[in-house]
Amino acid sequence: MQGLSLAQSDREWLASKLLEPKADDAKTAKQKEYVKETLTRALKEVKEAKNEGRKLKSMDELLDELEEAVV
Predict the structure, then answer these.
(1) CA 17, CA 21: separation in Å to the nearest integer?
(2) Residue 51: DSSP 8-state
(3) Pair 10, 1: CB distance under 8 Å
């Protein structure tokens, strides 16, 4: 950037654009955080069910439930 002949305000603007996260990066970060939270919660529920001796849903039951939620 130092080699460019830009006004100070233009340099600051350009630097801010180079440093700010892309919209896709922010969206991806939110999606990753959601997946992490969801999986963490699911793992906790599985551990609690195991400790309490509860029967967990089968994969078929879980998929049926997910299909119903999407429709």
Answers:
(1) 8
(2) H
(3) no
Q: pLDDT tens, 20-53?
A: 767 677 788 889 999 999 989 988 988 898 899 9
Amino acid, single-letter form, for residue 29:
A
Dihedral angle, C-alpha 44, 30, 18, 11, nearest 10 °:
-110
DSSP 8-state assignment for residue 38:
H
Give 4's Cβ-side CA count (13 Å radius). 10
Tell if the pTM clears 0.70, that is, is over it.
no
Give yes or no for a contact between 66 and 58, defined as CB atoms under 8 angstroms apart: no
How many Å apart are CA 57 and CA 68, to the nearest integer?
A: 15
Characterise 53 by phi-psi region: left (phi > 0), alpha (psi -120 to 50), beta (else). left
Structure tokens at 64: 């049926």
